[in-house]
Amino acid sequence: MVSSKHFNMNKKRAIITAIGLYIATFLIGIIISLSGGLNFSDPSKIPPYFWFVSLIITIGFSAFASLWYFNSSKTARNTKEGFLLGIIFVVTGFILDLLFFIPVFFKSGNLQNILIYYTRPIFFASLILVVATTTLMGSIGNGESKNKSLKKSSKK
Question: Rounded to two decimals, what is the model's pTM?
Fold first, then answer.
């Protein structure tokens, strides 16, 4: 178990960022699907280009959301924080799916479709890319922030 002494993440900011990321990617997904005339009634028939575009958008939006999260004096920017932020993004997305989409599939009797979606390798690749992106964004500039704090402490 991780002690609170070593877990200094701004959890509230991370969850708010995760919800914003979820909403943004959801809205962009709707725009792409409507403009492309896609039908999600059978996830096995979603064209590969949609998955490819979704992966690119996921990486870009995850990077942007990470930058926003780390752009605060209350957050530590490092690899560990980036990794934990990615985990929070994934878990929050899954919880929001549980709250909003899975009940719809249960009610409509299309449970098989949601299982197809969640068991596609590309879905797992997107989750890994989210965590990899946030981890990278956390590690970038890490040395820079250490140098700044060393300069501040040496001036005192």
Answer: 0.80
